[in-house]
Write a structure and sequence with these properties.
mainly alpha; three-stranded mixed β-sheet; three-stranded antiparallel β-sheet; globular; disordered C terminus
C-alpha cells in the first residue's frame, strides 16, 4: 500500500470511529467500541467477529458507493454486535432478534438481510421505495408539469412547480386513504459545499412549508476527498419528495441566473447585495406559491368533511403527519432546531427581488415536453 492510500485508509478509520460513536449517541445504544478494520474483500461488504471484537468494512464498499450506503452497512454490523454483546446471543440467520437490533438503530428493512442479499439493498436504496399505481400515475402527471423546469423561461418553470404542488394538494385525500403501511422515503441532496449559505436554508424552509415533507440540514462524509459536505435531507412520501427535490434544483438554478441579470444595479455592494437579492426572490416566490396552495387546499377542504377515514377495529388511525414524524424520529432520534443568526441585508436589493419573485407566475397554459425529474444523489 502506497503512502497516499495508507493516509486515506487512516482517515476512513477515523471517520468511521466518529460515525460509530454518533450512531451510539443518536440511538441511545451503549456499546463498547470494537476494533474497526478495512478489509480487501470485494465479496463481503461488512463483517462482525464476536470472538476478537473486530468490525470490518470493505474497501470496495467505501470507495465505490456513496457514504450513506457505508453507514447502513456499518449499522448492519453494529446490529450483530448488539445481538452478541447486549442480547448475549448470535442471530446468524438474521432472524427476529437481529431485526429487533436493526430497528433499534433505525436501519431500513432492505439492509437487514443476510450479507449475500445486501446488493439488493443497494439497488432498493437507489431506486427508492415502492409506490402505488395511483401514486405512480400522479407522479407521471407531475413530471409532465415539471418538464418546463429546465426551460430558460423562469416564469414557466415557476408556474410548473406551483401547479405540481397544487396537483398534490388536490390528491391529498387519495394519498391519506392508502394503507397506513405506505412507504416513506429519505432522500439526500448533496450540495457539494462545506457550508450551507443562508439562501439554501431559506429554500429548505420553503420546501418544508409548501410540499408536505420534512427537510433537515446535515452533512455527509466524502471518502475520496476526505471532507464532510453539507447535505439537505428530504423525508416524506415519494410524490412529495419528488416535487420538493425538483423545486430545490429549480430555485438553485434560477437564483444565479436572475442575479446575473440584475447585479449591475447593485454594483459595489458585493456579497451582501447578492445574498439580499436571493432572499428577496425566495420570499416573493414563496408568497406566490403559498397563495396558490392555500386556494387549492381550501377547495379540497370542502371534500374532507364528508370523507370517512379508514380504521382497523379498536386501533387508532395515524395521520399522514404523524407517520412522517415517526419516520423522521427513526432516522434522526436526537433532532434539534438550530437558532438562526442575524445577517446583513441590502434593503433595496431585497425589495426589488421580492417584487420579482412574486411575478414568477405565467397566466397561460403550461405544456410539458416529456422531461424527467433529476435523480437525487
Amino acid at each position: 500500500m502506497n503512502d497516499f492510500a495508507s493516509r486515506l485508509e487512516t482517515a476512513w478509520l477515523c471517520q468511521l470511529t466518529r460515525e460509530y460513536n454518533d450512531i451510539c449517541y443518536q440511538y441511545g445504544v451503549r456499546l463498547t467500541p470494537p476494533i474497526l478494520r478495512i478489509n480487501r474483500d470485494r465479496r463481503q461488504m461488512g463483517s462482525w467477529s464476536a470472538t476478537d471484537r473486530i468490525l470490518g468494512l470493505s474497501e470496495a464498499l467505501i470507495g465505490n458507493h456513496p457514504w450513506r450506503v457505508t453507514l447502513r452497512i456499518l449499522k448492519h454490523e453494529m446490529a450483530h454486535q448488539i445481538c452478541s454483546e447486549l442480547y448475549s446471543r448470535q442471530d446468524v440467520d438474521h432472524g427476529p432478534l437481529f431485526r429487533q437490533a436493526c430497528d433499534r438503530l433505525g436501519l431500513e428493512a432492505a439492509f437487514q438481510r443476510a450479507g449475500a442479499d445486501l446488493t439488493e439493498g443497494l439497488a432498493e436504496l437507489d431506486a427508492g421505495s415502492c409506490i402505488t399505481r395511483q401514486g405512480r400515475q400522479i407522479i407521471d402527471r407531475v413530471r409532465k408539469l415539471l418538464a418546463l423546469g429546465g426551460s430558460d423561461n423562469e416564469h414557466e418553470a415557476a408556474l410548473a412547480v406551483q401547479r405540481a404542488a397544487e396537483l398534490l394538494a388536490r390528491h391529498r385525500l387519495d394519498f391519506d386513504a392508502l394503507a397506513e403501511g405506505e412507504g416513506l422515503v429519505h432522500r439526500t441532496i448533496n450540495t457539494g459545499g462545506r457550508t450551507l449559505p443562508v439562501h439554501r436554508k431559506a429554500i429548505c424552509n420553503i420546501l418544508e412549508t409548501c410540499f408536505l415533507v420534512r427537510v433537515i440540514c446535515a452533512s455527509l462524509y466524502d471518502p475520496l476527498a476526505d471532507v464532510s459536505l453539507k447535505t439537505i435531507e428530504v423525508l416524506g412520501r415519494e410524490e412529495d419528495a419528488a416535487i420538493a427535490e425538483h423545486c430545490y434544483h429549480f430555485l438553485e438554478d434560477r437564483l444565479e441566473v436572475l442575479w446575473q441579470r440584475n447585479r449591475r444595479a447593485f454594483a459595489g455592494n458585493g456579497r451582501t447585495a447578492r445574498q439580499s437579492y436571493f432572499l428577496g426572490l425566495l420570499a416573493g416566490f414563496r408568497q406566490t406559491l403559498e397563495r396558490g396552495l392555500a386556494a387549492s387546499r381550501a377547495a379540497t377542504g370542502k371534500l374532507v368533511q364528508g370523507k370517512a377515514q379508514p380504521a382497523a377495529a379498536g386501533l387508532p388511525v395515524l395521520t399522514a403527519e404523524q407517520r412522517l414524524e415517526e419516520f423522521v424520529a427513526s432516522r434522526f432520534p436526537r433532532l434539534r432546531r438550530m437558532r438562526s443568526q442575524g445577517i446583513s441585508m441590502h434593503p433595496e436589493a431585497y425589495r426589488q427581488a421580492v417584487a420579482e419573485g412574486r411575478e414568477l407566475t405565467l397566466h397561460r397554459p403550461v405544456r410539458g415536453n416529456g422531461g424527467a425529474i433529476r435523480q437525487l444523489t
